[in-house]
Structures are given as structure tokens and as C-alpha cells.
Amino acid sequence: GGGFAGQADAARTALARGLVQHLNDAELRDAFMEFDRSLLVNDVRQSEPKKWGGPGARARYQKSYR
């Protein structure tokens, strides 16, 4: 998302990628990957949009037959 946490994640990814690219250091890249892969690779998953007929993306409203 575009909230504070998402922007912070984007900033730390940009800083880590910039350091690795500027220093051209494979050892630093491996250390970052071992510590936390999300430093160099973005997580592109997004929340599924809400749909009609329920309170969320997959959950449905309770059905009554009587």
C-alpha cells in the first residue's frame, strides 16, 4: 500500500539496492539476502479487492433458509 509501512519498506529496499549497486559487492549482496531477502527483492503481493455479497474479498454473508 501507500501507507507509512509500505513507504518505509520501499525506502529500505532502495537504500540496500543502492549500496549493493554502488559498491558492486557480491559479498554485501549475499549478506543482505541471508539477513532479509526483502531488502533487495520487493514483495509485489497486493490485497484482493472486496467484492459484492460479503464483508470481504472471499467471505460471504451468512445465508438463511428459513
TrEMBL record:
<keyword id="KW-0689">Ribosomal protein</keyword>
<dbReference type="InterPro" id="IPR000754">
    <property type="entry name" value="Ribosomal_uS9"/>
</dbReference>
<comment type="similarity">
    <text>Belongs to the universal ribosomal protein uS9 family.</text>
</comment>
<dbReference type="GO" id="GO:1990904">
    <property type="term" value="C:ribonucleoprotein complex"/>
</dbReference>
<protein>
    <recommendedName>
        <fullName>30S ribosomal protein S9</fullName>
    </recommendedName>
</protein>
<dbReference type="InterPro" id="IPR020568">
    <property type="entry name" value="Ribosomal_Su5_D2-typ_SF"/>
</dbReference>
<dbReference type="GO" id="GO:0005840">
    <property type="term" value="C:ribosome"/>
</dbReference>
<dbReference type="InterPro" id="IPR014721">
    <property type="entry name" value="Ribsml_uS5_D2-typ_fold_subgr"/>
</dbReference>
<keyword id="KW-0687">Ribonucleoprotein</keyword>
<dbReference type="InterPro" id="IPR020574">
    <property type="entry name" value="Ribosomal_uS9_CS"/>
</dbReference>
<feature type="region of interest" description="Disordered">
    <location>
        <begin position="47"/>
        <end position="66"/>
    </location>
</feature>
<dbReference type="Pfam" id="PF00380">
    <property type="entry name" value="Ribosomal_S9"/>
</dbReference>
